[in-house]
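Q: How do we represent a protein-ligand complex in a form that can be generated token by token?
A: Start from the inputs.
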Amino acid sequence: MKNEQGVWITPAFPKLIYVLEEDNVRPGTPYYYLTELAAKCTAKRMVPDYISEKKMLELKVDKNGEGHCYTCMGCRSFLTPYVDENGKPKYYGRFNQGVVTINLVDVALSSGGDFEKFWDIFEDRLELCHRGLQARHNRLVGTPSDAAPILWQYGALARLKKGEKIDKLLYGGYSTISLGYAGLYECVKYMTGKSHTDPAAKPFALQVMQKMNDKCKEWKAAENMDYSLYGTPLESTTYKFAKSLQKRFGLIPGITDKNYITNSYHVHVTEQIDAFTKLKFESEFQQLSPGGAISYVEVPNMQDNLEAVMSVLQFIYDNIMYAELNTKSDYCQCCGYDGEVQIVEDDGKLVWQCPKCGNRDQNKLNVARRTCGYIGTQFWNQGRTQEIKDRVLHL
Ligand SMILES: [Zn+2]
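Then emit the structure tokens for the protein with zinc ion bound:
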């Protein structure tokens, strides 16, 4: 879209999703040319983002054993597979009841590194999240459809009668309710001394993921609600969690010494790893995050190397359900610079600066970065800005 000066820039919205399929992903297939156009657009504007139909059909299987392919609801939250009373897949109109996020780093630090204590504390904290989720759910129970006619009566979410309560939509899988998690990397690092990409630490990381899935399953069976594990976007909360950890446990090198914690199951942003290894590694965790998750790779300016972008897209198709490429296309309104605007430190504060003219006025800079699943253009808090500054390239 055009900015105030009529220059083409990367907008935050709309978010676009492109589904990679058998008929568009390999040379010679009928819609390959569309995928090439998508790759060109991604190289310049970060969107579209990519869903692999192949992986999704494997992972999103309904009660009849049929795989479904559908988009996320927002930046990354995925509904559970569902068929209506006529046996038809239904996604539009369904919704999520809310999220409560567990800070996995706090669980680890509270255990002091003792594994037995870790699992006990983890259990307690998960039950605390469960109570939080039940509170969200109970807030909705008994709501009459008249509270929001567009949503509940006119079809945005449902076509209920006047005066009818929304309760039936809260059970049986029509809507989901999400257990979020954050900081798997720091949690594993503290407990094992290693990154979860290390083969010695990965099994523990997967156990932590499995435990959360098991709890969701247990709660779902008991309450007939679709509890689902969700890699929380943590857009600003990353800073809040990091600050709380520092307050409770002090500065622990490699664990609490940043103003952010790592999103969901992601590889730490500073860890050197190539795009393909990262996507392959994270795909194992993505499949344990059915309520939603997104993986991305950081890439330099790829506009002159679309073949490499195509290789990444083909790799996504074969290996991971949902992924994005992050590039940089900023613009300085003072001097017309259209490369990457830098983050510099000024008196302990991180500020954005045009590398060509030194402009630091945020009102005269167009900066677009993937905050999480969405692109952000409104600038960020200090924690998230530090995380963005620390990101290494994967290609
Ligand atoms: Zn400038």
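The chain has one domain: 17-329+368-390. DSSP finds eleven helices and 13 strands in the chain.
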